[in-house]
Amino acid sequence: CLHLKSACTALDEETILLNSAWVDAAAFGAVRAIEVAADEPAAANALAIGNAVLLQADCPRTSERVAETGYDVRTLDISELAKYYSSQRPSLCSTYETRDNGKCKGL
User: Fold this and answer.
1) Which candidate, 81, 101, 85, 104, places its Cα nearest to that of 93?
2) pLDDT tens digits, one per residue of 11-61
3) Are 32 and 47 in contact (CB under 8 A)?
4) In the sheet where 32-35 sits, what is the strand order?
5) Averaged over 72-79, what is the pLDDT?
6) 47-49 sheet: strands from edge to edge
């Protein structure tokens, strides 16, 4: 993964959102782990503010998982940001997978 924030995010002191293909949940000890959907690997790149969690709009399965645990999920369309990164930072795009059919595949 590009950096730790891409692989996991602390949602509160007891909960992390993570992509276990990129980081081992055991590294965080006894915390509750919410796994991102397998077809949304970049969904762990989120932002928690109080009980609200900001997630990419094209990660609906992960958004649903987070909402089911009681968080107030807010989604953001970051497609223009993804376009910018893919045009300005080709090396970044070779690190991440590309978007396919509107599914969350990274920037």
Assistant:
1) 85
2) 999 999 999 998 888 888 888 999 999 999 889 989 999 999 999 998 999
3) no
4) 8-12, 15-18, 32-35
5) 87
6) 47-49, 52-56, 72-76
